[in-house]
Structure formats: C-alpha cells, structure tokens
Design goal:
By secondary structure, the protein is an alpha/beta fold. It is built from seven helices and ten strands. The strands form two sheets. Strands 1, 4, 5, 6, 7, 8, 9 and 10 form an eight-stranded mixed beta sheet that branches. It has a two-stranded antiparallel sheet with strand order 2-3. Helix 1 crosses helix 4. The N terminus is likely disordered.
C-alpha cells in the first residue's frame, strides 16, 4: 500500500492533528483500527491527507497506544501519548498534538480519528478558501451539516492552547470570537463517523457505495 503524498504546493506548510485518545466506550473496540477497505479507519484518513499533500501528521493516542504507534509510525505519522486519556476530553488530547505545531505555526487540519471519509478534493477546497479569504478557521458544510476535518490557522494556536474553559474545542472556538467560516462541499463523507457500531456500519456502506459509483463512472468514461 502506498502512503506517499503527491507534490501539492497548495498544501505546503499544512499539517494535521488527529485525536485518537478516546475510550471508545460506545463502540466497544478501538475505533481507529477498525477495518476500512484495504486499511483501517485511521489509515484511510492518513492516506487521504498524505495524497492531498499534507506535510505533517500528528496523532494523539490513549487506549492501546502501542498498537496504534506500531500501525502509524510506518506511515510516517508522529505519535504523542496522552497519559491522562481516561480523565481528559478530546480537546485536551488535541492540545498535546497542537503543542507540536506551536513553534512552526503551521496551519492544520483537526479531526477525530473516526472521521475518515473526507476526500482530498475537500481538503484542497478548504485550503484554497483559507488562502483566498485569509480566514482563521474553515469547516466543511455538506447538506446543511457541518463536518470534519476543520482547517485552523497556526496564528490561532496560542489562544486555543491557553483556553481553560468548558465545552472543549467548541468552547475554545467561541472564545476566539472570530466569524465561523463554513465551506460548502459536495462530500457527504465529512459528516460521517464511527462513534457507535451503527455509525460504523453506515460508514462502511457509504464507502462501498462510493467505490461502486467511482467504478461505474470510470467504466462509463472508457466506453
């Protein structure tokens, strides 16, 4: 399997932080390592990020950290462990990953590990939107629903990392007091996750249907 990235100047200086330190209490299994296609849920997200040209990917681990590290490090992913994953929320875990970017000030995509089905085109659309508007944060919007990943300017890192309030990332974003920029995309994958077994089955069905649609479109072009 090829996890190499394309040469994409649009993504130069763009990183990603993946939060994978949850307890998965509703799933009953380690969500990032659930099968998806020829890889795993988190492997699929990493591959899409790399193929879109994202230069650096940081994953924050919690439960079963060793299994995740062994899976991710060969893909060129940086891993940082949250030793307090059982008592902290996703935002506090994400901050450990964001700390790695504080010195470089790179903009970054932020996503939970169980949201893998965004497309490379969506990533490029969001990056182009930020380049064009100079906004500090952009979130994909499909069918009236907000999704992941979120693209965040590196200039916002100090304020986000210093946030001590409630409601996690949403609370930190509200405290920034900046306009919310939603980027319309035709990518239903941004709204899908694997939070529960039912969500995971829906995600798998969506993935398989998308593969069939792509194969049918390819066959039609070749007629």
């Amino acid at each position: 399997m090829n996890f190499g990235k394309k040469d994409d100047k649009q993504m130069a200086g763009t990183a990603a932080v993946i939060a994978a330190a949850g307890l998965a209490s509703r799933m009953g299994a380690l969500k990032p390592l659930l099968p998806l296609g020829d890889t795993t849920v988190i492997g699929y997200a990493v591959r899409t990020l790399k193929q879109a040209g994202v230069s650096r990917i940081i994953t924050v681990t919690g439960r079963d950290a060793r299994r995740l590290w062994m899976h991710l490090i060969p893909m060129g992913v940086e891993c940082v462990h949250n030793p307090d994953f059982e008592t902290t929320d996703m935002f506090r875990s994400a901050c450990l990953g964001m700390e790695r970017l504080k010195e470089s000030g790179e903009r970054f995509f932020f996503l939970p590990a169980d949201c893998p089905l965004f497309t490379g085109q969506t990533l490029r659309t969001m990056a182009a939107y930020m380049d064009r508007t100079g906004c500090g944060m952009a979130q994909p919007l499909c069918g009236g629903r907000k999704g992941h990943p979120i693209l965040i300017s590196g200039a916002l890192l100090p304020a986000i990392l210093s946030y001590q309030g409630t409601d996690g990332m949403r609370g930190a974003v509200r405290a920034l007091d900046i306009p919310s920029f939603c980027v319309p995309v035709s990518d239903e994958g941004v709204t899908m996750d694997a939070d529960t077994p039912e969500d995971y089955h829906r995600l798998l069905n969506f993935y398989e249907n998308r593969l069939r649609d792509a194969a049918a479109a390819s066959e039609k072009r070749n007629l």
